[in-house]
Write a structure and sequence with these properties.
about 200 residues; about 80% helix; globular
């Protein structure tokens, strides 16, 4: 299996990158409440801060040699929770269609099954690859723009145009990355079976 292995460089919990990831996690319920209560300006601000901290935690972890096992769990967990909370909030408000929400959640469920299969064979979950990160970034751009589209005027129109473009790319890349994970898991399981 082709795994992008970045060596753990510290076992410390309270590093700056981990604190940024923890802050992102704390922001998830705040963000969801803001979306549901239609405080869109504040919700956009929280989402933008999350995006900035997502970029910074990885960059600082690499630059300061603070890549940790905890950080490897927190970063993708925060990404997924923001995506799921945004999906729930925007679907609840009829900004996102149910089919798109279903497609993205189905991909997450597929990956959960792959992680379960890997664990059964004694392997860790696959590392986030570039394609998966690109998909997440596209969706993280799409959601605030689609939230912005829930209004009137040229700004809402622009939000809809660019938001749906990012949503289309993000969903396609999200599934593509998911299918690549399935292929990797299948190869690994076949190789294990052949070795027995």
């Amino acid at each position: 299996m082709e795994v992008q292995e970045t060596r753990v460089q510290t076992d410390r919990i309270f590093t700056i990158p981990n604190i940024l990831s923890m802050a992102r996690l704390v922001g998830v319920p705040v963000f969801l409440w803001l979306i549901l209560e239609e405080h869109d300006g504040w919700a956009l601000a929280v989402l933008m801060l999350s995006g900035v901290s997502d970029y910074l935690d990885g960059k600082l972890a690499r630059r300061w040699n603070q890549i940790s096992s905890l950080g490897r769990l927190l970063d993708p967990a925060a990404d997924r929770l923001y995506i799921l909370s945004t999906l729930f909030g925007l679907t609840y408000r009829d900004i996102l269609p149910l089919w798109l929400t279903g497609a993205l959640i189905a991909r997450e469920l597929m990956l959960l099954v792959m992680v379960w299969i890997l664990r059964r064979h004694g392997y860790p979950p696959p590392q986030v690859n570039f394609l998966g990160k690109a998909a997440t970034f596209n969706l993280m751009y799409a959601f605030p723009l689609l939230l912005l589209s829930d209004g009137t005027g040229w700004l809402a129109w622009m939000g809809a145009v660019f938001g749906w473009a990012f949503a289309g790319w993000g969903t396609t890349l999200y599934w593509w990355a998911g299918i690549l994970y399935v292929v990797q898991v299948r190869r690994l399981v076949k190789a294990d079976a052949a070795a027995d």
